[in-house]
Predict the 3D structure of the following.
Amino acid sequence: MLGERMRALGLAQHYQCPQLPASPKAAIELALSVVRDIPASELTVIGSSLGGYYANWLAEEMGCRACLLNPAVQPPRDLEKYVGVTTAYHSDDVFEFKAEYIDELKALSVSRITLPERYFLIAATGDEVLDWREMARHYAGARQLVIQGSDHGISDFHDHVDQVLEFSGARIGNGS
């Protein structure tokens, strides 16, 4: 949805959304390779669920903005029970979540955000996977949009895409 909206606004060249590997360490290495040469003042990382956890780490590491969509706040705790062979959240794709990934996640932990103004949290009270209250506490002081209802995938995200883009610095009215 975000990519489609950016294309419609003539911003497709600024959109990158690589498929991240299961290994948190490899996922961060890939993400860093994509954003490494972009000045922090021009960069907004956007992540949902575990991708939100990664976006938080990237924002702290790079000094850029981050928009977090129902982000995981404590995935080492939450994902430990999924070690082993499992399926992806939005599909039946099978993958192995290895025990070593828990340590990789711990290495990316951000116990407290700096400069809350760099963050925009979108959290759904109807998230069936993660607790929106934990998200709101972790991102205290940041811009927050708490959606009443919805779900983990924020199925009504189309209603919020322009807010994400505006936070990212896009001028929606004139397509720049």
